[in-house]
């Protein structure tokens, strides 16, 4: 095999792509899988923790209820602070090697990767959800409770649909961050994109060319996800043009004599 000259940058790029392109694609697939699944599970964890952190306690609650509520809030706050306050690379080492040493669990690197990305994302999403809930006017919650809804019903039917729309950009940010941050999982032998690139770079000792390719692949993944999430946001917003109702069919129970309201296009 004839190798390009040392100064032939694009020659080396094409050679490395030809020889290791399939490995790079496999690594990119693993990276996307970790990021997508981890972000999805993390969002579920964050939603649950965020709602639990807003759970009120009645003033006339008994002592055990107050102690249980305080203990729950302490545990949730500790979870958030620990996983937001430590690097994901350290969390991966603790989870993967700690599970072996302390619990004799033979955890696969991929399972450990999914677990770490999920709980790390959940900690960030919990605070995002709590802030999103706080951004909804308190009058809506009070109105829901005034018509007989419980706290959970008010959250499910009134507050959370609006909160999810407000925090959608942050969910997208977490997905893009996870696509990049999964690179740290190479320390527990997860064969994601960075791990694949590092292996290929050692074959020819051409680190610049290899990681130039890896950089382009990461950019394509993050840019595509960013555009897709923008499109979803646009669809959720709906059309900028709408028509007001021109008649009220319910004004006449028979529906034969609707009352015309004179609606117009906005």
TrEMBL record:
<feature type="domain" description="ABC transmembrane type-1">
    <location>
        <begin position="28"/>
        <end position="229"/>
    </location>
</feature>
<keyword id="KW-1003">Cell membrane</keyword>
<feature type="transmembrane region" description="Helical">
    <location>
        <begin position="204"/>
        <end position="225"/>
    </location>
</feature>
<protein>
    <submittedName>
        <fullName>Amino acid ABC transporter permease</fullName>
    </submittedName>
</protein>
<keyword id="KW-0813">Transport</keyword>
<feature type="transmembrane region" description="Helical">
    <location>
        <begin position="110"/>
        <end position="126"/>
    </location>
</feature>
<comment type="similarity">
    <text>Belongs to the binding-protein-dependent transport system permease family. HisMQ subfamily.</text>
</comment>
<keyword id="KW-0029">Amino-acid transport</keyword>
<keyword id="KW-0472">Membrane</keyword>
<keyword id="KW-0812">Transmembrane</keyword>
<dbReference type="Pfam" id="PF00528">
    <property type="entry name" value="BPD_transp_1"/>
</dbReference>
<dbReference type="InterPro" id="IPR000515">
    <property type="entry name" value="MetI-like"/>
</dbReference>
<dbReference type="InterPro" id="IPR010065">
    <property type="entry name" value="AA_ABC_transptr_permease_3TM"/>
</dbReference>
<dbReference type="InterPro" id="IPR035906">
    <property type="entry name" value="MetI-like_sf"/>
</dbReference>
<dbReference type="InterPro" id="IPR043429">
    <property type="entry name" value="ArtM/GltK/GlnP/TcyL/YhdX-like"/>
</dbReference>
<keyword id="KW-1133">Transmembrane helix</keyword>
<feature type="transmembrane region" description="Helical">
    <location>
        <begin position="20"/>
        <end position="51"/>
    </location>
</feature>
